[in-house]
Write a structure and sequence with these properties.
Elements (H helix, E strand, L loop, with lengths): L1 H4 L8 E2 L11 H11 L9 E6 L7 H15 L6 E3 L15 H9 L7 H10 E2 L2 E7 L7 H4 L1 H7 L6 E5 L1 H35 L4 H25 L4 H4 L7 E2 L2 H31 L2 H29 L6 H33 L8 H10 L14 H8 L1
Helix pairs in contact: 3-4, 8-9, 8-11, 9-11, 9-13, 11-12, 11-13, 12-13
Length: 391
């Protein structure tokens, strides 16, 4: 059931949103939406290209190179056109001037060039750097817009060095940086949690089980987050406008918080079970005893956390709303299905293997002294008997 709940996570697409994450009525959001929907799309959010050329930027060779480069970029799917200092139309015919004609215009002395040419020179050229604006009708926050950036960067012009920026490029670079670093963050978290559980309980089996159970809980919550906020289900109930993608950064934030909370419940439950097992040597009894002593605490703590996170659903900003709902679902699943059902069931089935560790590893853990053994009831001396003996 939990794996099925996590299936929507397989088609998750992340995007870096703009002002559309704010609720209607906020001025910046309304202006952003108006610019995207009521005006020519992409005009205010172009893909900005900086081209460094050798020598004079207005030489015929450089104009030809930039013209060929612009033509290739404009041919990409998702790009309408490329604007720059060399895109000049003949005012009488409306035809675009050839590179030779553009070079002749820029070769004219100052004061003899048409006013429009001087304006283009001031707007698009600084030193040996030429600015080009690739106009795309795609919203810069959408995944299909960020997917366009590597295609633009793959276009090369002979003798010209290019840099691609703009809103879509910033989003793409953020996603790439996150994708490169997220595995390290997840790996370090999993390894540290497993190592701490190993040192605490002296078992080689419990760390693996704990990590797998927590990942199972997170999978279900991630699937729910995608199903609700990316696919738009329950949008009427939760009062939000679906973005069509998952907000970048939310999954890794949720993973970090949920993993910490889940491991907290795990350690609380396993500690009681281990204490009972060391006292009785009966795995079945220790599982039942540990569950009975901690179920109320885990349920109460989870109820508090679910209440806190669920309150985030009242937020107007979809970023906060999605994090709160996702974590509320994760804590609820973890405290009910995982900790109260799956963990005790698997420990009951594995029997004494729960507490197994290679000899050298067990001795090493015992020497560190991290694990805790429940104190035995102290023997109360029989003062009356001793007194009678003395008498």
């Amino acid at each position: 059931m939990l794996l099925l709940a996590g299936i929507p996570f397989l088609h998750m697409e992340q995007g870096v949103p703009g002002a559309e994450i704010y609720p209607p009525g906020v001025e910046s959001r309304d202006a952003y939406v108006a610019l995207q929907t009521e005006f020519a799309p992409g005009e205010t959010t172009p893909i900005v290209i900086l081209a460094d050329v050798p020598g004079s930027p207005t030489s015929l060779a450089n104009i030809k190179a930039i013209d060929a480069y612009s033509t290739e970029v404009a041919a990409l799917h998702g790009v309408d056109r490329v604007e720059g200092p060399f895109t000049i139309q003949d005012p009488s015919t409306g035809a675009v001037l050839t590179p030779e004609q553009v070079a002749q215009l820029y070769a004219l002395p100052d004061g003899q060039r048409p006013a429009g040419v001087d304006a283009l020179l001031a707007q698009y050229i600084r030193g040996s750097t030429i600015r080009l604006d690739a106009i795309s009708p795609l919203s810069p926050s959408k995944p299909e817009s960020t997917d366009l950036i590597p295609q633009v960067r793959a276009v090369k012009a002979e003798g010209v060095t290019t840099q691609v920026g703009g809103s879509a490029a910033s989003g793409y670079d953020f996603l790439i940086s996150q994708a490169q670093r997220a595995p390290y963050a997840v790996g370090v978290t999993l390894a540290a949690s497993a190592a701490i559980i190993l040192l605490l309980f002296g078992s080689a089996v419990l760390p693996i089980k704990a990590v797998l159970m927590t990942l199972l809980s997170i999978t279900a919550s991630f699937g729910a987050m995608v199903w609700i906020f990316q696919d738009g289900n329950l949008s009427n109930v939760l009062n939000f406008t679906p973005l069509g993608y998952t907000i970048a950064g939310n999954p890794i934030i949720m993973f970090s918080v949920i993993f910490g909370l889940s491991m907290d419940y795990e350690v609380l439950l396993l500690s009681r079970m281990q204490e009972a097992y060391r006292r009785t040597g009966d795995n079945r009894r220790s599982v039942a005893e540990g569950l009975s002593k901690t179920a109320g605490v885990i349920t109460g703590a989870a109820l508090i956390m679910v209440s806190v996170f669920a309150a985030f659903a009242l937020a107007d900003v979809i970023t906060i709303k999605s994090i709160g709902v996702g974590m509320a679902i994760a804590v609820f699943v973890d405290a009910t299905i995982i900790r109260v059902l799956l963990v005790p069931a698997t420990m009951r089935l594995m029997g004494h293997w729960n507490w197994w560790a290679p000899g050298f590893l067990g001795r090493f853990v015992d020497r560190l002294g991290f694990s805790h053994v429940e104190d035995e009831e102290p023997e109360v001396p029989d003062h009356g008997g001793a007194a009678r003996g003395i008498a």
